[in-house]
Design a protein that fits this description.
- By secondary structure, the protein is of the alpha/beta class.
- Strands 1, 2, 3, 4, 5, 6, 7, 8, 9 and 10 form a 10-stranded mixed β-sheet that branches.
- Helix 16 runs antiparallel to helix 17 and helix 16 runs parallel beside helix 18.
- The longest helix has 23 residues.
- It is elongated, with a radius of gyration of 38 Å.
- The chain starts with 11 loop residues before the first helix and ends with a helix.
Length: 690
Amino acid sequence: MQPNQPSPEFHPIAEQVEGLIRAGKAQEASQLLEAALVAEPTQPDLRAAQGLLHVFAGEEDAAVELIHDCGKGPRARRLGRLLTEHYMCRQQLAAKKGKRDGIAHLALEKVRIHADRPLDHIGIKLSACLIVKDEAKNLARCLNSVKDLVDEIIVVDTGSTDETVAIAESFGAHVDHFEWCNDFSAARNFSLEIATGDWALWIDADEELTPESVAAIERAIVRPQFGGYAIEIVNFTEDDSEAARYVHNPVRLFRREPGIKFAGRIHEQVMPSIAQSGRPWAYLKGAQLLHYGYRPSEMEARNKVERTVTMIQKELADNPTDSFQWFNLANAYTAANDFIGAEHAAAQCAKYLAPGDQVGALNYQLWSNALLKQDRAGDASKVCDAADRNGFGTLLNDFERANAYLRLGLHEEALDAANRCLAAEWPSDMTGDASIVEYKRYIVRGQILSVLGQFPEALSMFERALRVNPTYGPAIYSKAATLEKAGQLEEALDTFCAGQQNQDVAQLCLKGAGRVCAALDLQKRAAEFYREAWRKDVHDEEAWIGWIKAGDATGDARMLVEAYSAYAENHVATADILINWGRALNDSGEFERALICFREAVEREPQNPNAYFNAGDLLYKLEQFVDAAEYYQAGLRIEPNNASGWFVLGNALARLGAVGGARLGYEQALAIRPDYEEARHNLEVICEAA
């Protein structure tokens, strides 16, 4: 009796291969199929699976060449149907452009006899779907970018009070209205219900499609074998630069079919429903959306962060184990500079991350960054280690590790991490701060090299970063500080001055310019820089001390008076500050104000002898010898071994004609300091006069 032979129309390996393809694991499917074809190179079902691999790699022409070797089984017929649908769509696109696709015509002749009946709703009509509110500032830019590509524009307005609706209608958009219910998915699903296209392009009013994307999208919509396509979105995160970019890749182009809908009140997603449909999705190379809504001015004007946090918290109340929304909350808190909140949200996200989760690497980076912002470099380095252990170690992780080790003083380890970050490439499906790979990684490596004293190489790193983003504050400041360390003071000063235009580092650069000017003995300029730094931040003690030191070096009493007055306007002046303020007032001839300062110092700190001695000196200068003597005596009761105090007391008493008291004062001064020549001279004078 012969053993059962496997049917040529079905092979278990082919079934596994198709399952892997639909799960988005094309490389694993290819490896499995390649091994099977070595043993059975002509097996029809394996050849059909090979054709499916070609189809889902966008290599339909190669699949057509296999069609006659695939038999007549279900997989072969599915292959034939997918090819038929693809070439039918190609013919539709050619006809839309007034052309004829001869290759598609010939391919259809080859595959139709091997195919199941194509689906009735296959086509290439494309609907741009937007939900909007008060987007008059942005909408025209967005619609201009898609108007020549899409077949219809669907605009769902949720309550605009500006010219948004009129602008949409000027582009021929179908405009409908939706009562806002704090649910982005509900509004977006309403737009899908209105749309009539075979495909939907999800785009927001503060985005625009790049011109290069048109060809990529046309390539996509003739491939209905895919349920959707992820499109790179470049989010600009600075107001004055397009170099600072956060990149992510959500599904934005998808088949508009029953069952395909958005989910989630905020950070809504359509991909889960596509996955449930059984169709795979793919990354659409060459397509890109530019997003302007994350610029700080836009975020602040629309109160986006607070609104976003509130809506995410509602989502998490319903589903507290949703790692994606915990990630979104960590991101929102980071944007709001709430790093304690970001730390908590990222830690929660990490608890629920699935292996290989697309947001995993970025979540660990947000977590470690939040800890660094709290000056917890040790904890940040541990989070980086956890990212590696859990399979989320990327260049993002090495970037934060380099920063953490730098702060911990582990400079060689920091340099190793920076070098790994520098050697890594940005994967096409990576979500995160793309400016790390474009210029920020050069800055951290330069900072490490600067600490290690390798100034030329450090400077080359900063220059490389500045070629990409010439206005990036940390690069400017790091370059200036390194030039200062290297003794290139003139160049350092020029660079610090340039950095003052960047609000992120203006304070640091003003103080740096002050330091350099002091080193160049340009004390007046130093004082001006420090004064400006103090005015920007009246809590910056370093700036104020620099201002005082430069003022002392110039001998400009009025400058010192201004500095002390500025301090007193914003802080409670200590006795020592009041004493120095009084001295400056004395030097500038403002005796009454000086005396007020000295007396206030006495009240504030009754045990401070300098307050009494300075008050006494001023009173002596004003020839108020009785009061002067009283202050000197009060100071000496606190500090009886002050030779100078006894000397000036002797002088005051001498001016009052109290010779015996004066003699005692000079003798006490000489007893404490036998080489006190002025005291000896005055003692001799009064003795001779007696």
